[in-house]
Amino acid sequence: MKSIVYAFLIISAFLCLLADEFVVTQDIVLNPTNLTLTRMNQREKTDINGNLVGLVIIRTGIHDLLVVSPFLHKLEAKGGEYHAFFSPGTKLFTFKKEGFGNLKYELRERIGEIKSGTVYEMSITNRGISVISADANLLTLTLNLNEAGVYISKDNFAPVQAKDRLAVFRLPAGNYTFTFAKDGFQTSNQNIELSNDKTEEITLIPGTSAQKMPLTGFANLITEPEGAEILINSQRVGVTPFTVDELFPGEHELTLRKNLYHPQTMTFTITENGTFSPGTIILKPKFGYLSVNSSPQGATITLDNKPYGSTPSSKNQIESGNHRITIKSDLYYEYTEDFAISDGDEKFISVELQPAFGELTINSSPEPGADVYLGTDNAPVGKTPYHNSKMPSGRYHVRIAKDLWADSEEALEVKDGEKTERTLVLTRNFGTLEITADESSLIINGEPVGTGFVSKRLKPGKYSVRAERDRHRSDEKEVFLTLGETNKVSLSPIPMEGIVSIKCQAKDKPGPDVGADLFLNGNKLENISPASISLLIGDYSLVAKHSNFLDTEKKFKIAEGDRLKLELNMETYSGSMLAKADFWKTHKLIGLGSTLFIGGAAAYFHISSENAYTDHQSSTDTIKADSLYDDYKSGKSIRNVCIGLASTTTVYTLYSLIKQISYKKAFK
């Protein structure tokens, strides 16, 4: 009994190793534009607890797929797709199929869980030991040999050498007898029943071969097109172009197979050291041409439940026979067509996909700029005026919201190809508070809101408003704002001031005020001294100016409530160091001007005398030459006088500059 159990466990483990496995080619993702759930009636998309289900669209070429979960509402096969409807909150489901290992698929690390009324997509395929050949009716027999270079014969055909330890045969289902031979090993026979793809282990035992090894032959095989699978006596030996060696003398069956071409089978005989060269074998096409276009372009094409690219697709080869094509594009109804194509046929499919969307416009009144919410989404899709030219068809619950306004909502339906426009009315939920305070910072409930004037919409209630201004005492009030009211508030910060009295008199002769112009921080005051003025607290610079006196400056600081008395003693301008500096400044300018003028005259007489001398040298008239020479001598004399005078004025200019600088320093 234990032996049977162990054998069962070993066989089960071996079958598990050979089983196909599921492979996820696209993890689950949200598809908000899919309209499948929108078009279903309420009963179809509600689970036994009355909850709106979520939909997972599983794209696959696997037939008879099972999806297992205690929360599965129903599973529908849709031609290359499975539609799995789950109750909300589903976090795990399992894929199953006979001959496959189970696949548990968890959502927690991807989307969390299935949500009500939401559509998701994913894709799966399989991976395993199955080998796809050019003829779907053939099965694959794989022989694992313990030796390389073994000659294998099937039934009554001549042996063919397996170069490696692996030999692959393409055979219909049935019973077959194989003979295995190699020098140094015993010849062995084995019967193999083939009902599905399988692998057999073949062990050769050292000894004497019962089969004589003759001289072998060759087969040179070329096809048009290249790349055909070569089967000799059903054993795969290579792909064209190829030279097959080590062929036993005798009759062989040659089969050439290539996807999208008809297989060709022939027999040939090899003699010892002979060669079979049939020339280039032309394979007959087993395909037609398919061109697909759609409006709009860019639609996804599925051919026989397998991805086939997107539109437009031009003149692609497809195998002759019956086919089903599906053309899909987001926000359009899918198109499906069954068709047949023969060898060499050209099939053109052009489809105008029908829109599964309409045009939606949402406005708000009396103001735009409201957030627009659709369905149960927590995030707004836009602001009013909101426009979506491709809104998926279906029923929607629309809500608009704007700060300080009450929400407005409405149910509406978007129909295929139609325009839907709605204006939702907002209800005022605020009053208006207007605050005025010249040159002041304005604050509401401790938050700065502007300067000078602000108008704010606020919810009804009690507010503290304050105006602040430099060197002023803040003005603050409490106001009550009611719904729809416009409350106007004026604030006046109180200046923080002191008073200063100003008197200006001559320094050397104290007496009555001289009536000086007054400049405070560089700005001239309207009144002259004596004066009494109010000033904001702070630091100031006062300058008194009078044509008969030197400018006099006094710096002072005034605090709130101060009454300062300022007396400015002004020094007489006449006879002052500044007056002397100005005197020499004037003489400096006179000297500089004289120097420039006399220097210019010297230059003029120099040029004139040089020109006269040049003309004298070239003159042929004795009288004129004598006159020119006199001009030359006269100009030269005047030039020398000018140079002497310019030297004197230059010295005087420098002297005046030195005197000006010395008196100016003394004044400062």
pLDDT average, as an integer?
85
Total strand segments: 54
Radius of gyration using CA atoms only:
55 Å
Estimated share of beta-strand residues: over 45%
Spatial order of strands in the largest sheet = 4-5-2-9-1-7
Question: What is the CA-CA span between the terminal residues?
Answer: 127 Å
**Largest sheet data:** 6 strands, mixed
Helix amount, in percent?
A: 10-25%
Number of helices: 4
Protein described:
The chain has 668 residues and is of the alpha+beta class. The protein is built from four helices and 54 strands. It has a six-stranded mixed sheet with strand order 4-5-2-9-1-7. A hairpin with a 2-residue loop joins strand 41 and strand 42.
